[in-house]
Specification:
With about 70 residues, the chain is mainly alpha-helical. The protein has two helices and no strands. The chain is elongated, with a radius of gyration of 22 Å.
Amino acid sequence: MTQDKAKTDKKIDKAVDMTFPASDPAATGKATGTEPPARPSDRKAPVITREEIERAQKGEGHKRAG
């Protein structure tokens, strides 16, 4: 058995152990859906500055209802 195969098998064994006693086996490989994703799969998380976080903590920048 190759090293890569042994690593993969070890990861699968660990995943199976973590899901016990679930009825579904651990998923391996790529998704099998035929529909395209609703959002771009390569999108990045937004960059948020410390100042924006502090303003949000204070409630600044939110639209007021009414």
